[in-house]
Amino acid sequence: MGSCASCILLGINRCCDVNQHLRIRTIFLGRKMYITISIPILYTIYSTFFTKPIIFNSNYMSWFFNPMLPGHEATDYINIAHTINNCVVSGATTAIYAYLCILLFAKSKHFRSESISKTQTQIFFQSVLICSFNAIAAYIYVYMQFFYSPPSVVLIGQLAWQCAHGSVCLIYITMNKTVRRGVIDLVVPRVIRDKARIGTNRAANIARPILSVIGMEPKVGGTTRTGTSSGTVF
């Protein structure tokens, strides 16, 4: 449940990043940021110690509050807090990212002077991928706790729940250059990284004389110039 709160805060943060006139943006500034970070932490503690636990059912390969034991009613195992959490997360996530999609469309089509940067677009898609798994899992988990669900639907919900917790690192490593560079620096030994940089520099140094022989200079400011012509070569 703490990860659900984190996803909602992440979506709100992306809204504030695209539309900096939102007043709620102040919760991510200054010392208020510590209060914002404490919300998922406290929510996790509450859900762990003060709500009914969820039990894994091997027959359905998913998590259910009802252990399905004979002689017990399903209503004895209802977790109201979990149900409210999933309803809020699914609804809030859908509303937040629908707003972001509309805002991005408006800025890209009608307000060219205020168009968002490539970095902001990448961050937006990363956030959508991360939070969509939470939203899908929340929708299915609310439904299957109260209504009959085919095994395929239960399996999709379980996979979405697993992706919600395990796909974050993969998304950041594959789509975020800063995180990917940090992982490489952490995992790859420095000797190998230095050799790779030396090899890249040597290749660049070899290419420069070849360009000068054919009458071309390396690109300067995004253009390529020749030694005899004054025009720009594209």
3D architecture notes:
With 234 residues, this protein is an all-alpha fold. It has two domains: 2-177, no CATH class; 188-234. Helix content is 66%, strand content 3%. It contains seven helices and two strands. It has helices at residues 2-18, 32-49, 80-109, 118-146, 151-175, 177-187, 190-213; strands spanning 55-57, 62-64. The protein has a two-stranded antiparallel sheet with strand order 1-2. Strand 1 (55-57) and strand 2 form a beta hairpin. Helix 1 runs antiparallel to helix 2 and helix 5 (151-175) packs across helix 6. The longest helix is centred in the middle third of the chain and has 30 residues, at 80-109. It is globular and about 65 Å long. Residues 220-234 have low confidence and may be disordered. The chain crosses the membrane at residues 33-57, 77-102, 123-142, 154-173. This is Serpentine receptor class gamma. Pfam families: 7TM_GPCR_Srt (PF10321).
Q: State which percent range the strand residues make up.
A: under 5%
The biggest sheet amounts to: 2 strands, antiparallel
> SS-based structural class?
mainly alpha
Oligomeric state of the chains? Answer: single chain
Number of helices: 7
Key traits:
234 residues; transmembrane; membrane; mainly alpha; 7TM_GPCR_serpentine_rcpt_Srt; disordered C terminus; transmembrane helix; 66% helix
Short description:
This protein has about 230 residues and is mainly alpha-helical. The protein contains seven helices and two strands.
